[in-house]
Specification:
Blueprint lengths: L36 H21 L12
Amino acid sequence: MYTDEPSESPHRYSDGALCMWYPYDAPEQRWVHADGPEALLGHVVAHLLREQWWRSTGKWPGQEAPHGT
């Protein structure tokens, strides 16, 4: 998933895509196709709110997975 600016975030891939979940998370912790588009939109909104919180406070709210693996 991609969004317009601002793109500064510790949870974006190098191409600017949102890093919303760890690939090895259990299906209930991430979006799967069977969840439908409404659930995907919910994940995107939650991620963007976390990014905004991080930009304002310097702290990421919620769980974080390891990066660079």
